Write the structure tokens for this entry.
Amino acid sequence: MTLTLTGLIVLIVIAAVCGAVGKALAGGAPGGLITSIALGFVGALLGPWLAQQLRLSEPLVLIVSGRPFPVVWSIVGAALFVALLHLMSGRRRAGLWSR
């Protein structure tokens, strides 16, 4: 099955939105649109894998050009990935956790 240019653009837009939401949930991360797109795709790999390990269902899956994109788990995976990066870098954020 091939992916059309329109399908690729739609997948990139969905990944950017999911990555941006995940990034915001985890306390933000430096970077812009490209970072959000990358986080969306990393989340789309990490989130469903984690859901499968925990035997959880996929509540919202969009089908684009015959390919599934798990929106909720992409957001969760992106947020977890950003949180993990924050933990590994030792970065402290101002706010609730900085007391």
User: Anything to note?
Assistant: The chain has a mean pLDDT of 82. The beta strands are 61-64, 67-70.
